Amino acid sequence: MKYIQENLAIVRERVAEAVKKAGRDSQSVKLIAVSKTFPAEAVQSAYDVEQRLFGENKVQDLALKNAALAKDIEWHMIGHLQSNKVKLAVENADYIHAVDSVKLLQRIDRLAGELGRSPKVFLEINISGEKSKFGADTELVRELAQAATQCENISVAGLMTMAPFGVPEDELRFVFSSLRKLRDNLQTEFNLDLPELSMGMSGDFEIAIEEGATMIRVGTSIFGKR
Ligand SMILES: *Cc1c(COP(=O)(O)O)cnc(C)c1O
Q1: Relative to the CA of 205, which ligand 1 atom is closest?
Q2: Distance in Å, CA 34 to ligand 1 centroid
Q3: 103-153 pLDDT, tens per residue?
Q4: Atom number in ligand 1 closest to CA 202
Q5: What local confidence, expressed as pLDDT, does residue 137 receive?
Q6: Whether 95 contacts 79, CB under 8 Å
Q7: Rounded to 5 degrees, what angle do the CA atoms 46, 47, 49 make?
Q8: Which CATH superfamily is 2-223 part of?
Q9: Nearest CA, atom 7, ligand 1
Q10: CA dihedral of residues 85, 86, 90, 96 (deg, nearest 10)
Q11: Is the pLDDT of residue 160 over 90?
């Protein structure tokens, strides 16, 4: 699947340019290749050109690909997680990006202890307030941050958001910079270390990088239309 490798080279070039434009360190942004709905062979093509971070939004698919592919892949569960799938996620994922309830956070923490695993998690925030979206509002996020300080087996890496589709650039900037400011405030208020900001997708990752993203989740630009 040569086109995947070519697309990946283009995305890497665009990431490098955005990082440079933002005056940031080239190591400060990690690219998660979102392989959801694509077969394991597609992941393998990207793997063959040094891609190691992959994202899936269904935990069953993530588990199947994890079993089939190389052990040095870092798996990111980026989709909404139902409580009956938490065990499978904890067993297979290195990162869980969409934690948006205290119950879910505590369940992940408990199962991580039982299974001897230590996935890193992101708190998902719904910055734009869209009703159709998952994610905590700014009030719930304080409860989540408080709960994060009590976790014994997992650590919260940072915050994650999805920007609304088809909105102007200034609105995207507002969403991404709001997530960064919220992160800064939570770190101070709850004495948490939240180094990571998971934000930016195919349509908006350059803007996310300019606004401080440390992990971008890119699917379509690498693997093609779903
Ligand atoms: C599918 C998905 C992405 C990637 O979206 P693209 O527009 O294909 O780059 C990123 N984040 C989440 C949570 C997703 O579900």
Answers
A1: 9
A2: 6
A3: 999 999 999 999 999 999 999 999 977 776 788 987 899 999 999 999 999
A4: 9
A5: 87
A6: no
A7: 70
A8: Alanine racemase (3.20.20.10)
A9: 202
A10: 100
A11: yes
